[in-house]
Specification:
65% helix
């Protein structure tokens, strides 16, 4: 007679992904500031494609990029301060400093070589782990630090800061931050990095395009031409000047994400758990 069968229950706890820590929790003021600076940034980047030959902006085509550059640097500073006020504690500041310094150091590695820019891969993974608020501040600060390091300070720098802020923030807005892990997450981040690398290059082309002298090239911005004609000029400008560079940046970002991205994601998540950003720093009284 066989012994009665007994149900065996697995007493081991099931491993479930824990909610991912965020270095900064975006509040209503931070979201409003981000929306304001983003709207102004879109106008600063894309005004040549919407300004007809009779518009007041086209009448000041030589001054507009400088005005937008000055305005953007102030707005980026304001939004960074607003986000920081909403919860950028000492632990997050330390993490920000380490990642920004690493990104600034990585940028010169590929200087002068078509598209070899490993800092973009670091920005994607950092934004994914630490969230959109931290990502925007990190992208802006990293680009500012790298400009100082490489001597790349000019009217294009505020546009670079804003574009990199968007680039890193976008990674923090991707779905599945608390659940998606493994190969699927790496493929999603690689796809985002590929597309965002082209978007960054296109945005920076828009920022620099109006500075070209229309008499010097038939692909330069011409304030006296209609919008469709300028759009055709801009597409030709992108194909002629930056397609190879943007493709190289996108491919390098994808390769680094797929090869070493998993290891770096684990390291960043382990660091955020140990930092316990959501736990306030307290000091024992003497």
């Amino acid at each position: 007679m066989s012994a009665p069968e007994t149900a065996v229950h697995d007493s081991r706890p099931h491993s479930r992904p824990h909610p991912q820590a965020r270095a900064i929790r975006l509040g209503p003021r931070s979201v409003a500031a981000l929306a304001l600076v983003s709207a102004t940034g879109v106008a600063g980047f894309a005004w040549p494609l919407f300004a007809g030959p009779g518009s007041q902006v086209s009448a000041h085509a030589q001054d507009a990029p400088w005005l937008f550059a000055g305005l953007l640097v102030l707005l980026v500073a304001v939004v960074a301060a607003t986000i920081s006020e909403s919860g950028l504690g000492p632990k997050a500041v330390a993490m920000l400093g380490v990642l920004a310094a690493t990104g600034a150091a990585l940028r010169p590695i590929g200087a002068g070589t078509a598209g070899i820019e490993p800092m973009f891969f670091l920005m994607v993974l950092s934004g994914r782990v630490l969230g959109p608020g931290f990502g925007f501040v990190l992208g802006s600060v990293t680009m500012f630090a790298s400009a100082l390091l490489t001597g790349g300070v000019g009217p294009w720098m505020p546009f670079q800061m804003l574009a990199m802020g968007w680039f890193t923030m976008g990674a923090g807005l991707l779905p599945g931050a608390d659940r998606l892990r493994g190969r699927g997450e790496l493929l999603m981040l690689a796809g985002y990095g590929f597309l965002a690398a082209f978007a960054y290059g296109t945005a920076m082309n828009l920022a620099g395009w109006p500075f070209m002298d229309a008499l010097a090239s038939n692909v330069a911005f011409d304030p006296h031409s209609a919008v469709p004609a300028n759009l055709a000029r801009f597409l030709a400008y992108c194909l002629a000047t930056s397609l190879g560079w943007d493709l190289g940046r996108a491919v390098v970002t994808v390769l680094l994400t797929l090869t070493v991205g998993g290891t770096l994601l684990k390291a960043l998540r382990r660091a955020t758990r140990r930092a316990a950003f959501e736990s306030p720093v307290t000091f024992d009284p003497r």
